Amino acid sequence: MGKQKFFLGIDPKIIELFNNKDVTGLSKYRPKQVVIEGSEKRLIRDMDGIIFVSSKDGEDDQREKNFNEGDVRQRLSYISGSITNSPHQCGAPCRSKDKEGKPCDKLTFRQNCLCKRQRST
After folding, report:
1. 68-82 burial string, b = 16+ CB within 10 Å, else e?
2. Is this model's pTM higher than 0.90 or not?
3. Between the CA of residue 83 and those of 10, 22, 25, 57, what are the distances in Å?
4. Which of 23, 56, 64, 86 is 20 to 30 A off residue 101, Cα-Cα?
């Protein structure tokens, strides 16, 4: 019988529109529904851009990284904040010379601003 695998994702076009902060493009996004069926793999892209893949015995090579509910919620809040132009305060230990170690007060759409990255030496 084999191993059945499922993948739920988003059309790459939507990801591109998010990354480009193209709110107009997102509001106009209206793809046609696509259904591709084979003996070992079935792919569906719905009209909202959600992609569902069902496959048997490794016929689909999608990434297999699982995110817990908290991670998903956090990632979606960053995307939502970016679209609505609502950044949050970084809060990570600041790396600026005059504020080093204190909570960073910069606004960001990411988890942490660029001050969290390692300094090159």
Report:
1. eeeeeeeeeeeeebb
2. no
3. 17, 8, 12, 39
4. 86
